[in-house]
Amino acid sequence: MSTPVRVRFAPSPTGFLHVGGARTALFNWLHARHTGGTFVLRIEDTDRERHNEEAVRAIYHGLRWLGLDWDEGAEKGGDFGPYYQSERGPIYERYLGILQDKGMIYEDAGALRFRSPRETVTVHDEVCGSIPFDLSNPGTHPDMTVRRPDGSWIFHFVNVVDDIEMKISHVIRGEDHLSNTPKHVELYKAFGVEPPRFAHIPLILNPDGSKMSKRDTGASVQSYIQQGYAPEAVRNYLCLLGWSPKDNREILPIEEIISLFELKNINRRSAGFDLDKCFWMNGQYLIQMPLERFTDLSLPFINAAGINYGTREGLVPVLALVKEKVKHLTDVPAWIEFFFNDDYTYDEASVEKSLRTEGALGRLQALGAHLANVEPWTAETIEAAFKDLAAALGVKTALLVHPARVAATGRSVGPSLYHLLELLGRERVLARFDRTREKFFP
User: Fold this and answer.
1) What's the rounded Cα separation, in Å, for the pair 193 and 397?
2) Does residue 70 form part of some domain?
3) What's the CATH number where 431 sits?
4) Same domain, 236 and 294
5) Is residue 37 part of a domain?
6) Residue 396 falls within a domain, yes or no?
7) CATH number at residue 106
8) Same domain, yes or no: 406 and 332
9) Which residue range forms the structural domain that includes residue 422?
10) Residue 95: CB partners within 8 Å, gap ≥ 6?
11) Considering only Cβ atoms within 10 Å of each terminal Cβ, which end of the chain, N or C, has fewer?
């Protein structure tokens, strides 16, 4: 019988959730979902001086925003807790005692060190292959500290203990941890435990080839939340940083990614981060997503902008009209504000270009009178009325469209004008034309 798949994401809460950490969590989550396994969230907070409770909440929020639900762990509980390392002291004491009884721990200037067997350790990795590490030279590979003089634990020791105790079957983490892995294998052997299967995933690089750090543009998951990215778009993009479906497709539903994801298909080479590509993918997701989902994602930004839209039922048709124009969800309030506020501001450049030109006032007045008789009030009949009046006046339709748009919305760009006017309704459109003429041509 095969061992049940149990994977973990074990971040240190010393800053906001980094794109690299999010990608690591995602690959663990995908492997768990692909195999029907368990995804564990463990908080590695042994470094109390750098511990940041706000960062812990940011980790929870970032994972949930990406849709990476964990099956057990911090905030959820489970059979292998506690899931905060700061609460697992007695467990570490017990495992330290095991090594002490074997004569594998010695004191050095107040610190406790693990006595290396001084062997060549071969790490068998699902992504990188089998790699031998010669640990025989104490000059280049000194005995690792497991406990500092102040009593705090070292990452390598508690990481291995926790993975043993939580029955982790696969350790999927960044390639920067590969050099630590032979030390961990030594500890597993010392405890008489078979190591988990390792999969070290490629580093994420900036466009200039440098390793992406927390300070780089696009590195914080929180920045995508604040800028109004769709979480499914960011998640899809992160899937492609080191993995691909092998058929050149890029936009895939998460269900299909889960079905296709296998550790053996993770790329060996480093992954280049391209914020422009992520931006493009976000736009594609926003265009293609169902209107109900688009509404759900837009509402926090609309509410934050203080737009009094009335009911959701009244809001949805407006969002349907502007949806194809939106590139970030933060754009939504600016696209819809004039729908719900008759006292909107006018863009001065648009006024100069479309209203303060010869004959604009007369054409706008004639258009209002013409639209007053349009029946029924639909985008199709409104468009026909524009074209009929333009023909009667002997002008291009654009000389009616541009003043009408600025008069009705205060700006020169927006969604389909005829559908926009239909949605506003005849009474509001004609009132806006009158208001505009009074404001700029008293």
Assistant:
1) 79
2) yes
3) 1.10.10.350
4) no
5) yes
6) yes
7) 3.40.50.620
8) no
9) 348-440
10) 157, 161, 164, 191
11) N
Question: Which residues are designated catalytic?
Answer: 214
CA pair distance 438, 442, nearest whole angstrom: 5
The number of residues in the chain equals: 442
What's the token pair of residue 259?
């079905």
> Nearest-CA neighbor of 39 among 144, 168, 157, 132?
168
Digitized pLDDT (tens) for each residue of the chain, 442 residues in all:
568 999 999 998 877 899 999 999 999 999 999 999 999 999 998 766 666 788 899 999 999 999 999 999 999 999 999 999 999 999 999 999 999 999 999 999 999 999 999 999 999 999 999 999 999 999 999 999 999 999 999 999 999 999 999 999 999 999 999 999 999 999 999 999 999 999 999 999 888 888 776 666 567 899 999 999 999 999 999 999 999 888 888 999 999 999 999 999 999 888 899 999 999 999 999 999 999 999 999 999 999 999 999 999 999 999 999 999 999 999 999 999 999 999 999 999 999 999 998 899 899 999 999 999 999 999 999 999 999 999 999 999 999 999 999 999 999 999 999 999 999 999 999 999 999 999 887 6
Cβ atoms < 10 Å from Cβ of 183: 20
